[in-house]
């Protein structure tokens, strides 16, 4: 049995999802020889620390009843710096303007030789190359499947399963909020504002939903794909972006009359990263509805491979994180 000491830094929906999945899958993990022992959990107000393993059930209850994980006055960065452990699960909120606390957290983790598995898009959309280089210099693993498409396994699919293929392009829907709004606007002939409010109630929109509807969230995910798959050195400011705010129910109906749906499609290939509304024929593999994400990967050997799945959600995102953790230590 391999024991991996881990911290969970950031205990919002995704961090809590990771804790729930670790509890639920403890036996499955042990069956494959992995004992993931969480020695610290930190949120923005405090931390719970126990070198023998934090009781995740108690931490989940404390968070839900008292609004914080524990009474230790340590920040996430101090946990990463001062507590002995191998793996940092970084699930602090995305801040794509500065990288937020996620950026110094990841840098500190690598400087201390720790591995990082993250769902936090901000640091990767701004400083991917720097992070990847520091991880490499320190012999750390750096995995971030959860940053793009939630539970939809796009990065590891390309890197592992499609290894040996040259990737020609990736295109698809990488923002569930926009897909939900467009799908429901067409079904209900309802206004954009009404459907935006509905998608916020579902809990999948960013804290500031402007990032979703202006196409910036999708742009960040494309940048992560561009940098990690196409070896570019892009930030989201390099992406040609149009959002969905100007789309009317009438234009969606006109498209439907001609056999099309309107989708916010992102595309990345050599020297091109763009996101904007496009007409997609009804029945086309990219014409998935609701909150789903989808990606078509065009390759030289395998042809086109298309996957679809849930691009957001606490347990869904935790699925991608656990899969990254297992892939490092198995
Ligand atoms: N706001 C994002 C979306 C969440 O709607 O897809 C997942 O990154």
Structural description of this entry:
With 330 residues, this protein is of the alpha/beta class. It folds into two domains: 163 residues, 3-Layer(aba) Sandwich (Rossmann fold); 153 residues, 2-Layer Sandwich (Dihydrodipicolinate Reductase, domain 2), CATH 3.30.360. It is 41% helix and 22% strand. It is built from 13 helices and twelve strands. A six-stranded mixed sheet has the order 3-2-1-4-5-6, sandwiched between helices. α5 packs parallel to α6. The longest helix is centred in the middle third of the chain and has 17 residues. The mean pLDDT is 96. The site of L-homoserine (HSE) has 11 residues, from α8. L-homoserine binds next to α8.
Quick summary of this structure?
It contains 13 helices and twelve strands. It is of the alpha/beta class and 330 residues long. The structure holds L-homoserine (HSE).
Number of domains: 2
Q: How far apart lie the N and C ends? A: 10 Å
The CATH architecture name of the largest domain reads 3-Layer(aba) Sandwich
The computed structural class is alpha/beta
Radius of gyration: 20 Å
- What would the principal axes of the Cα set say about the shape? globular
**Count of beta strands:** 12
What's the layout of helices and strands?
Blueprint: E1 2-9, H1 13-24, H2 26-31, E2 34-42, E3 47-49, H3 56-66, H4 76-82, E4 87-90, H5 102-111, E5 115-118, H6 121-137, E6 142-143, H7 155-161, E7 167-173, H8 176-188, H9 192-201, H10 210-213, H11 216-229, E8 240-241, H12 249-257, E9 260-269, E10 272-281, E11 292-299, E12 304-310, H13 314-329
Parallel strand pairs: 1-2, 1-4, 4-5, 5-6, 8-10
Antiparallel strand pairs: 2-3, 7-9, 7-11, 9-10, 11-12
Helix pairs in contact: 1-13, 4-5, 5-6, 6-11, 8-9
Bound molecules: L-homoserine.
């Amino acid at each position: 049995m391999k024991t991996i000491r881990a911290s969970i830094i950031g205990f919002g929906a995704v961090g809590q999802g990771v804790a729930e999945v670790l509890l639920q899958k403890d036996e499955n993990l042990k069956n494959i020889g992995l004992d993931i022992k969480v020695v610290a959990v930190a949120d923005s107000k405090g931390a719970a620390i126990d070198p023998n393993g934090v009781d995740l059930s108690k931490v989940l209850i404390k968070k839900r009843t008292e609004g914080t994980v524990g009474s230790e006055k340590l920040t996430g960065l101090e946990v990463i710096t001062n507590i002995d452990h191998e793996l940092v699960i970084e699930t602090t909120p995305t801040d794509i303007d500065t990288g937020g606390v996620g950026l110094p957290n990841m840098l500190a983790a690598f400087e201390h030789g720790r591995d990082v598995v993250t769902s936090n898009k901000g640091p990767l959309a701004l400083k991917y190359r720097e992070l990847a280089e520091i991880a490499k210099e320190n012999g750390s693993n750096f995995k971030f499947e959860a940053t793009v498409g939630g539970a939809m396994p796009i990065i590891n699919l390309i890197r592992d399963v499609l290894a040996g293929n040259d990737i020609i392009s990736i295109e698809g829907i990488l923002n569930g909020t926009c897909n939900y709004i467009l799908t429901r606007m067409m079904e209900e002939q309802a206004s954009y504002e009404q459907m935006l409010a509905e998608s916020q109630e579902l809990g999948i929109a960013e804290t500031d939903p402007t990032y979703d509807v202006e196409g910036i969230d999708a742009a960040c995910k494309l940048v992560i794909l561009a940098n990690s798959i196409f070896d570019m050195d892009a930030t989201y400011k390099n992406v040609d972006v149009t959002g969905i705010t100007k789309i009317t129910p009438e234009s969606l109906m006109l498209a439907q009359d001609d056999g099309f749906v309107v989708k916010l499609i992102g595309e990345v290939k050599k020297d091109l990263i763009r996101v904007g509304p496009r007409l997609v024929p009804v029945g086309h593999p990219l014409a998935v509805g609701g909150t789903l994400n989808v990606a078509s990967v065009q390759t030289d050997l395998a042809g086109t491979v298309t996957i679809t799945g849930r691009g957001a959600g606490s347990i869904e995102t935790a699925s991608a994180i656990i899969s990254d953790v297992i892939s490092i230590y198995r």
